[in-house]
Write a structure and sequence with these properties.
Blueprint (H helix, E strand, L loop, with lengths): L12 H17 L7 E4 L6 E3 L3 H6 L6 H5 L8 H9 L5 E3 L1 H8 L5 E5 L3 H10 L6 E4 L3 H8 L7 E5 L8 H15 L4 E8 L2 H13 L5 E7 L11 E7 L5 H16 L7 E8 L2
Parallel strand pairs: 1-4, 1-6, 4-5, 6-7
Antiparallel strand pairs: 2-3, 7-9, 8-9, 8-10
The protein binds S-adenosylmethionine.
S-adenosylmethionine binds next to helix 7.
Subunit structure: Monomer.
Organism: Caldovatus sediminis
EC number: 2.1.1.266
C-alpha cells in the first residue's frame, strides 16, 4: 500500500533542492540536439494546488518555494524560480513531471511511473493526448528494469521514493548500481532524506560498494542532522553528472540555504564525490 501523499510536502525545501538541480541537469541535456528520454520512477501527481487543505495543513511550502519566490534576485536559482513561476507558483507548485515536460523539445520524451491510484489518475489526465509523455501505473523499482535503457541512448532517470518504508536506502543503492550497468550513458539523480548521519553514511558506503563509478552527492541541511525524527536536510546523488555540474551545485545550494535556512549554526551544504570517475 502507498500511504505517502506528496501533496502535504509539495514546494518544501526538499522539493526546491531536488527540482533546482533537476532543472540544471535538463538544461545540460538540451545542449545537444540529439533526442533524450527522462524516466521519473516516483512521479507523483505532476502538480500541486498550494491552497489545498493538504498544503495548508503543513504550510511547508511557505518555508520553501514561498521564500524563493520572494527573492528580488534568485541568482544561480533564477532558471528554476522563473520556471516554477511560469508553471503557476505560488498558486500551484509543479512536480517533477511538469518541470521536465516544460523543458522537453519536440524530439524528447518523458516516461512517468506512479502506482498511487489518485496520483496516477491526475498524472494520466494531465498528459492525456500528449505524444511525448507516457504514464505508467506500476512499481517504480520494477519499472527501472523494464523501461531502461531507453532507445534514445541518452537521458536522465530520476528516482524520488517516499522513504516511508524500511529498506528504501538499500533499494535506492541497488537501483543506482543496476542502472549504471543497464544505462551507462544515462544521468541518474536519486533523492534521499538526511535525518541523521548514520543512515546516509551507510548509503554512501553501499553506493561505493555497488561498483558504480562517477557518483557525486549534493546535500543541504537546515539544522544539524541529529534528530532522527525530523527531515533536517536532503541529498541528491548524481551519477554521470554533466560537465561542470558539480561546480555549479555549490553556489546553487549556498543561495538556497541563504534563502531557506534559519541561520542555525548547524546548517550547511556540501558537494562531495562519493566514487571517482
Ligand atoms: N518526484 C515527484 C516530484 O518531484 O514532484 C515527487 C514524488 S514523491 C516524493 C514520491 C512518490 O512515490 C509518491 O507520489 C508516491 O505515491 C510514489 N510511490 C510510492 N511507492 C512507489 C513505488 N513503489 N513505485 C513508484 N512510486 C511510488
Amino acid at each position: 500500500p502507498v500511504n505517502y501523499r506528496h501533496a502535504f510536502h509539495a514546494g518544501n525545501f526538499a522539493d526546491c533542492m531536488k527540482h533546482a538541480l533537476l532543472v540544471r541537469l535538463l538544461h545540460a541535456l538540451r545542449r545537444k540536439e540529439t533526442p533524450f528520454a527522462v524516466l521519473d520512477t516516483h512521479a507523483g501527481r505532476g502538480a500541486y494546488d498550494l491552497s489545498a487543505p493538504e498544503a495548508e495543513r503543513t504550510g511547508e511550502w511557505r518555508g520553501g518555494v514561498g521564500r524563493l519566490l520572494g527573492l528580488a534576485d534568485a541568482g544561480p536559482l533564477a532558471d528554476y524560480v522563473a520556471l516554477v513561476r511560469a508553471l503557476g507558483a505560488p498558486a500551484r507548485y509543479p512536480g517533477s513531471p511538469a518541470l521536465v515536460r516544460a523543458l522537453l523539445r519536440p524530439q524528447d520524451r518523458l516516461v512517468c511511473v506512479e502506482p498511487h491510484p489518485e496520483d496516477h489518475a491526475a498524472l494520466a489526465a494531465r498528459f492525456r493526448g500528449d505524444r511525448q509523455v507516457a504514464v505508467h501505473r506500476r512499481d517504480g523499482w520494477e519499472a527501472l528494469r523494464a523501461l531502461t535503457p531507453p532507445p534514445e541512448g541518452r537521458g536522465l532517470v530520476l528516482m524520488d521514493p517516499p522513504f516511508e518504508q524500511e529498506g528504501e536506502f538499500d533499494r535506492l543503492a541497488a537501483s543506482v548500481a543496476l542502472l549504471r550497468r543497464r544505462f551507462r550513458a544515462g544521468i541518474l539523480a536519486a533523492w534521499y532524506p538526511i535525518k541523521h548521519r548514520a543512515p546516509v553514511r551507510a548509503f554512501h558506503a553501499a553506493l561505493a560498494a555497488g561498483g558504480a563509478r562517477d557518483l557525486i552527492a549534493a546535500e543541504l541541511w537546515l539544522r544539524a542532522p541529529t534528530d532522527p525524527a525530523r527531515l533536517n536536510g536532503c541529498g541528491l546523488v548524481v551519477a554521470n553528472a554533466p560537465f561542470r555540474f558539480a561546480e555549479e551545485c555549490g553556489p546553487m545550494l549556498a543561495a538556497m540555504l541563504a534563502a531557506l535556512g534559519a541561520r542555525d549554526s548547524g546548517e550547511g551544504w556540501a558537494v562531495t564525490r562519493i566514487v571517482e570517475e
